[in-house]
Write a structure and sequence with these properties.
single chain, about 280 residues, alpha/beta, Rossmann fold, four-stranded parallel sheet, two-stranded parallel ribbon, binds NADP nicotinamide-adenine-dinucleotide phosphate
């Protein structure tokens, strides 16, 4: 989802740049006309060999085991992909003279003390959050690396791969009902704004830790309701439910709102826009 948008944003910002892309699956195109090298993050040798061949001066690392339920079901695998592979990638990139940007998540927080700034203490309550926090630590242990925490992404994917947001909108367009939480809050960001932010941060050689956040605090229900309206879905069937009404394997944080003001102060031209300004078509 994010990686293909980063590629588009980077091509727009730096049409002359030599851009290499990696993917986990050979068969699935990540964007029209893009030849991506296949790398398995579980196999450190393949990462090292690939970076040593390309010798990039900058790596934007958006790959991860991203499904919270998968990370819960396969905690060791999540740590290998999200922590160990990040450590290998950071080390070999640094050894080749490059810098690493690692994309992290609002899910490193517990949801009890929002909004969260860069100085807030992380306390993940899911295996996914723990593995992403461990990935942050691996990245930050290498000099001049950058960790960017991102909230929930919304928007359409560039590639034909599935995304939760696109699947939810498609379900509404088919007339299916969706049950959505009214008491789980995020500061969702339009995926194109997130990609633009990552590219701006990379090109400016920012280091350390920074948050990006959409300008609105929305529940899952509000996010899809507003997106359905923007996409002109006819009579969307939305059912409001409480996150406390379901039995979940891991706790569901109540409010993961991020404070993204530091990023906006540094990059006002890239300030994430409200959902009402998002354009839901890939041009
Ligand atoms: N989506 C969100 O709402 C959200 C919110 C906050 C932060 N983030 C973070 O933003 C980043 C991008 O998220 P996303 O939603 O774009 O994720 P995504 O659509 O699930 O994409 C993840 C990518 O990682 C690749 N990958 C996974 N395991 C791999 C492995 N073992 N070897 C090689 N590649 C592997 C996948 O490749 P294949 O598909 O080819 O297997 C896929 O291209 C992640 O770091 C995520 O933690 C996402």
């Amino acid at each position: 989802m994010l990686g293909a948008h980063v590629l588009r944003a980077l091509r727009r910002a730096r049409p002359d740049a030599h851009i290499h892309t990696w993917t986990g699956r050979a068969a699935a195109p990540i964007a029209p006309g893009v030849l991506a090298a296949v790398v398995d993050l579980i196999t450190p040798d393949s990462i090292v060999a690939s970076v040593r061949t390309i010798r990039p001066n900058y790596v934007i690392h958006t790959a991860a085991m991203t499904a919270v339920s998968d990370a819960f079901a396969r905690p060791d695998h999540a740590m290998r992909v999200n922590r160990d592979a990040t450590a290998v990638l950071a080390e070999v990139t640094d050894a080749c003279g490059g810098r690493l940007l690692y994309t992290s998540t609002d899910m490193v927080f517990d949801g009890d003390a929002a909004p969260y700034s860069e100085s807030s203490s992380p306390r993940p309550v899911s295996q996914y959050g723990r593995s992403k926090l461990a990935g942050e630590q691996a990245a930050l242990s290498i000099r001049d690396s950058l960790v960017v925490r991102i909230p929930l992404l919304y928007g359409l994917p560039v590639s034909p791969r599935a995304s939760t947001f696109a699947a939810q909108i498609a379900a509404l367009q088919r007339g299916e009902a969706l049950r959505l939480f009214v008491d789980e809050f995020r500061t969702p960001i339009w995926v194109e704004d997130a990609a633009r932010a990552l590219v701006a941060l990379a090109l400016a050689d920012v280091t350390g830790l920074i948050h990006t956040a959409g300008p609105e605090r929305l529940s899952r229900f509000e996010l899809i309701q507003q997106a359905a309206h923007a996409l002109r879905v006819d009579a969307p069937r939305l059912e409001a439910v409480s996150r406390l009404s379901i039995i979940a394997a891991e706790p569901r944080p109540a409010d993961l709102s991020l404070d993204g003001r530091r990023f906006v102060r540094g990059f006002p031209e890239c300030a994430p826009r409200p959902l009402s300004a998002a354009v839901f078509e890939i041009t």
